[in-house]
Design brief:
The chain has 232 residues and is an alpha/beta fold. The protein contains 5 helices and 12 strands. It is 21% helix and 28% strand. The radius of gyration is 18 Å and the shape is globular. The two termini are 23 Å apart.
């Protein structure tokens, strides 16, 4: 789950504000994930911005924005409950250009993992989500969303506490209809296909925590962003 925390700081003069960002993978954070999955990397959640910059929490007066793809990717070994295999994985990898920037190594790809996203949202106190690369899913008839996990017959709505348990979970999927049209040129919420808007709305509903999917990425360009009305 790729996430960037963005917040606004009061800077003395009335109306003057500064934006700070922390950009890295939340699930590589040692404290709130699994020690043996990654090398030791600290402060990849929102509170790390405070400690890293030496700020008082009282200075924070804005919002916290998490950035997540409309599907999931990862590199390296380890459990990946919503991973996709076969031809579909190759298609999404090619369309989304999911290859390592430096190594060119193919990334693993999967459906959106709501328990993981919800966990990141809660830990970081997200107020908004920037849901990127929605256009990559445009060719699909059906889009799956990992809504929850099941473990030993029990339904889980968050990430379990150990790798061993995560390796054994079964994903509870919801299947949503695709929109089957090119959305890369869309810049207004109302111009998105209804199915695309429904997908965003369902993700927002499942994640909960009060985090709004405010911005939706529909292409690789810097201007390829759709803002959902009433969220900012």
């Amino acid at each position: 789950m790729s996430a960037a925390s963005v917040f606004v700081l009061g800077q003395g003069k009335e109306g003057e504000k500064e934006r700070e960002t922390q950009c890295s993978s939340f699930f590589k954070k040692l404290t709130f994930f699994f020690l043996s999955l990654k090398k030791q990397i600290h402060h990849r959640q929102f509170s790390g911005v405070i400690s890293g910059l030496g700020l008082s929490p009282a200075k924070i007066c804005g919002c916290v924005v998490g950035v997540a793809k409309a599907y999931t990717t990862r590199v390296g070994a380890g459990p990946y409950p919503t991973e996709i295999h076969g031809d579909l994985a190759e298609e999404l990898r090619a369309i989304g250009a999911e290859y390592g920037t430096t190594t060119g190594r193919p990334r693993r790809v999967g459906w959106l993992d709501v328990p993981a996203l919800r966990y990141a949202a809660r830990i970081n106190g997200l107020t908004h989500i920037n849901l990127t690369k929605l256009d990559v899913l445009s060719h699909l008839d059906v889009i799956r969303v990992g809504a929850a996990y099941e473990l030993d017959g029990k339904r889980l709505t968050s990430v379990p506490a150990s790798i061993a348990e995560l390796e054994r979970v079964k994903v509870v999927y919801e299947d949503l209809p695709g929109w089957k049209s090119d959305i890369s040129g869309v810049r207004e919420w109302g111009a998105l296909p209804q199915e695309a808007r429904d997908y965003v709305a369902r993700v927002e509903e499942l994640v909960g925590c009060g985090a709004k999917c405010a911005w939706i990425g529909v292409g690789p360009g810097r201007d390829a962003i759709v803002t959902q009305p009433g969220t900012v």
